[in-house]
Specification:
By secondary structure, this protein is of the alpha+beta class. It has four helices and eight strands, in the order βααβββαββαββ.
């Protein structure tokens, strides 16, 4: 399945680091390091939650996103979405699903449509999550440019995101999430 919005792909080139590297506000740290479902947490803070798919296509994994579980050049299904609470964009999410992981029961992950990936993952009893890494994104980053496009305003503060690898039935997939301006994660 290939779906594309004019903004796709946004991509997320960043210097991902251990959270201990940064001095983060307590509320933001709590959101970034929360090991449970971000979808469930967002839903608990709003009346209406929705997912907007920016795009989904098969690409080769770039060296800036490769890690111990997803190799450079490996064919991955890239999925980029926006998560909204009460029509306010909260999170930009980019998922890399290696094609070798999209077999058996996990084939359904290729056809989620406007369903949240997190909603599916966190319903799986054997889900494992590896370490969470964090990064900040400045005005030169593609995700800040996306944010400026969405809000029709210039973002003054850096945006913060997290990424981690999930293992589902011994199959890896990587999810990165960036909190957009106005996100609950930035509120004290």
């Amino acid at each position: 399945m290939t779906t594309k919005h004019s903004l796709f792909p946004v991509q997320l080139s960043a210097n991902w680091q251990s959270p201990e590297t940064y001095n983060l506000a307590n509320n933001l740290r709590d959101w970034l390091l929360d090991p449970s479902s971000l979808t469930a947490r967002l839903k608990s803070h709003c009346q209406h939650f929705r997912v907007e798919v920016l795009g989904q296509s098969i690409q080769a994994c770039d060296s800036t996103e490769a890690n111990d579980d997803v190799a450079v050049g490996e064919q991955v299904l890239v999925r980029e979405v926006l998560l909204y609470c009460d029509d306010i964009p909260q999170v930009f999410a980019r998922s890399l699903l290696p094609l070798r992981s999209l077999t058996g029961e996990q084939q359904q992950l290729a056809d989620l449509g406007t369903q949240s990936l997190g909603q599916v993952l966190f319903n799986h009893p054997d889900l494992q999550r590896k370490n969470i890494e964090v990064a900040s994104f400045n005005e030169q980053s593609s995700v800040v440019k996306l944010s400026n496009y969405l809000t029709l305003q210039t973002t003054q503060q850096p945006l913060w995101g997290r990424r981690s690898v999930f293992i589902l039935d011994a199959k890896p997939l990587m999810v990165a999430e960036v909190f957009l301006p106005g996100a609950i994660a930035y509120q004290n």
